[in-house]
Structure formats: structure tokens, C-alpha cells
Amino acid sequence: MSEQKKRDNDTVVLDVEKLRIHYGTPAGDVIAVSDISFQLYQGETLGLVGESGCGKSTTAYGILQLIQHPGYIVHGEIKVDDEDVLGMTEEELRKFRWTKLALIPQGAMNSLNPTMRIKDQIIDVIEAHEGKQKDKEALKERIFELFQTVGLPNRIYNMYPHELSGGMKQRVCIAMGIALNPSVVIADEATSALDVVVQRIVAQTLIKVKDMLGVSLIVIGHDMGLLAQIVDRIAVMYAGKMVEIAPVENVFADPLHPYTQLLIDSIPSIKERKPLKIVEGITHDPRNPPSGCIFRLRCQHAWDHCASVEPQPIQVADKHTVACHLYDEQFEERRANAFAATTNS
Ligand code: SF4
Q1: How far is the centre of ligand 1, averaged over its atoms, from the C-alpha of 315 (Å)?
Q2: Is residue 73 part of a domain?
Q3: Does residue 125 belong to any structural domain of this protein?
Q4: Domain count of the fold of the chain
Q5: Band of the pLDDT at 289, cuts 50, 70, 90?
């Protein structure tokens, strides 16, 4: 690995510390994101996974300061390129979004304005941040370059959204996301409404964009198989907590957290016929989380210590952390027994 690459890979572009987000309800606060911390490195693609309602999208909206009432950020620290996002004024945030931090929201392709041509929607984004562009030819060239980056033909310049396929619309949204050359792009379920072939094309587009522009990417999704092909690390969330973050090859070859293990086990295989595995039980009431470990009510390895002490992230390898007592040094024997029992069952 070259020195430059190594240095880039170790540069933190997004640093989230102890972020906590609640949604207020008459029956009490729902804890959507619970004191999560993670870093995104320069040029890295991080996959954020977990079941519906685990806080993935809320995390993304929190990072962008787009949490709507009755949601609110209780505490935390968010830094992008060392700039403190939570301390920004509305005007500073407005400039910051798209130029430093861009979001491709869930169902983005349906958020395109049906009454505006594609070119006008992209020009809107550029001019909202850079002011009226006098050189129309240069602006057109710039949009053609964006089209080329995301694999779209120039002929869509004058088209309306309804004239494009779902995959093309999604790539228009990616083009808008990178139009102002942000450091970080968050793609929230960018491929979920597409068929499998188009999903793959859109996923490849995201990676191509990342490689060409050197942006750092967070890809939120459910499809572990698809994420495995495009991300460098995977962050696994459960009920608002970050339970494991690891390089993608570690997650698939040797998942450590019991929840990550169950997630990997539940991926259907086309190579072998096996009963479909599910994560038994249901998530607790998010207004009233269990004491100790957040996963203990569904964990087959839980013991009394898990009910009284909350596990903290333990670094087990480079850029690999897991929050589970089985990886505390003093419980090494218990870990060996737990996983021997699982293997034999
Ligand atoms: Fe299971 Fe205990 Fe680990 Fe939580 S801390 S995942 S309950 S073994």
C-alpha cells in the first residue's frame, strides 16, 4: 500500500461520538439512537445495517441535522473534516449540506420534482450554493460531466423524471448528491426500491463515484449480500446501539457479536438447502430498554452479568470493535464454552 493511500485510509473525515437521539411521545421518549460512536475514514465505504427501526436512518438524519420534531438530539458530537456540525447555525448548516455532507434519501428517485426538467433540478442545487451561474455553456458541460460520472447519457438533460427508468432516476439523485463535491455522501437505502439487476448497477455507480471523486460513503441497507460487494466495513446496529463495526471480510468470515452472527446466519444461500434461520423474539419497547446489554432478551448466550452491566465497545482488531461481554478478557472461558455449545448444537 502506498504511503499516500495509507495516510488517506487513516484520515477520519466523519467522527461521531456518543450521539443520542430521541423521539418524544406522550407515553415517553423513544430512544432511537443510543450513544453511538464511530468514525468514517477518507475514501472508505461503510455499510450501516440492522433491522427496520434500529436507528440507521435516524443516525443519517442526525449527522445532517435534519431530525424533525418530535425527534431531537439529546447529546453527542459530530465532526466532519474537524468541523463541529452540532455547533453550526442554520445558515452555516445550509452551506455545509451538499458541499461537505450530502444525503441521498430513502426513495430519493420519487423526490425528484415531476414538473421540472432534470437539468433544472441539478442547476437548482448548484445555484442554491454557488449563486447564479453566468456561463451557461460551462454549467451545461459540468452537468454532462456529472452524467458521465454516474453513467447517464447526455440526452436526459432536457427530460422530465417520468421519462427515465427507476435506475436512471436514482443515478440522477446520486449526480445531485455529488454536484458540489462533498467529502461525505450518505446513501439511505439507495437501492431498496429497485430490481436486483438495477440494484447492482446503482451500487456499482456509487462505488465508481467514490473511487473517482475520493468521497467517503455511508451506505445504509438491509441487503447484506449487496453490501458485502461494495463496502469496506460494516457497522451493525441493534435497537439504537452500535453492536459491532468490522472490516467486511471479518463480518462474513468471523462475525463476533451474537446478533451479527444471527444476521449472517439468516442470509439465504443458493448453494445449499438449509432451513431459513431467524432471530428469535421481538425487539423490546424502545421507550423502556432492558438493563445491561440491549440484546440480552434475544441472546442465547446471555447470563446474569449481561443484565447488570452494559457492554462497551472493545477493540478486537484494527478498525474492528464489538460490544459484548463475551469479549471481555475475564470471560474468555465463557466465550469458548458459548461458541463450542453453538457449534455442537
Ligand atoms: Fe449476549 Fe451478553 Fe453479549 Fe449481550 S453482552 S450480546 S446478552 S452475551
Answers
A1: 16
A2: yes
A3: yes
A4: 1
A5: very high
**Residue 7: per-residue pLDDT:** 41
pLDDT in tens, 164-183: 988 899 899 999 999 999 99
Give residue 36's domain range: 12-344
- CATH number, residue 29: 3.40.50.300
- Entry pTM: 0.90
How many angstroms does the Cα of residue 258 sit away from the middle of ligand 1?
A: 7
pLDDT band for 257, please (50, 70, 90 cuts): very high
State the distance from the centre of ligand 1 to the C-alpha of 289, rounded, in angstroms: 14
Q: Which residue has the higher pLDDT, 267 or 42?
A: 42
**22 within some domain:** yes
Rounded to 5 degrees, what angle do the CA atoms 342, 231, 86 make?
A: 105
Ligand 1 centroid–CA 321 distance in Å is 14
Let me know if residue 2 belongs to a domain.
Answer: no
Measured from CB, residues less than 6 Å from any atom of ligand 1 are 258, 293, 295-296, 299, 301-302, 306, 311, 324-326
List CB contacts of 313: < 8 A, sequence separation 6 or more: 37, 242, 245, 321, 322, 323
Does 344 score more than 70 pLDDT? no
Split at pLDDT 50, 70, 90, the class of 225 is confident
Q: 3-state SS string over the chain?
A: CCHHHHHHHCCEEEEEEEEEEEECCCCCCEEEEEEEEEEEECCCEEEEECCCCCCHHHHHHHHCCCCCCCEEEEEEEEEECCEECCCCCHHHHHHHHHHCEEEECCCHHHHCCCCCCHHHHHHHHHHHHHCCCCCHHHHHHHHHHHHHHCCCCHHHHHCCHHHCCHHHHHHHHHHHHHCCCCCEEEEECCCCCCCHHHHHHHHHHHHHHHHHHCCEEEEECCCHHHHHHHCCEEEEEECCEEEEEEEHHHHHHCCCCHHHHHHHHCCCCCCCCCCCCCCCCCCCCCCCCCCCCCCCCCCCCCCHHHHHCCCCCEEEECCEEECCHHHCHHHHHHHHHHHHHHHHC
Span 222-239, average pLDDT: 91
